[in-house]
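Q: Got a minute? One more chain.
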Amino acid sequence: MNRTTLTALAALTLAAALTACSSSDSTSSKPAADAPPYKITRQDKSGNQRQVTVEVTSTKDLRAVFDDVTAKLTDDAGWFVEINCSTGGTAGADNRLANGKKAVGNIGAASTGLDDGKTEYEANEGRSCPA
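A: Always. Here it is, folded:
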């Protein structure tokens, strides 16, 4: 190989390595521009079924919060998302506003009953936030 070819291959390899290392952190709770503020208070790091608990201060755009959270879940697993109001809960029960799930990979599909990459979201009617 000539020097130009080796240089081009080295540049491509470096670019691929940098791209692979720059993936977003799925534990980040910084919302996308269209999602209202939220805070991830729990996110399991291992297992076939993983839970993510999110707190919000309003019922505004809960679906956008769910979509933003699930977009960052990329590990093969069945993800179960709980969205709670930051107020109105008790030690025994959260003020649950919505539930959802996402399947990532075959493990996620088996764990959730959804096809790989699919989500399911359901808001709890009659709930308010702040409580």
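A: Residues 38-123 form one domain.
Q: Perfect, thanks.
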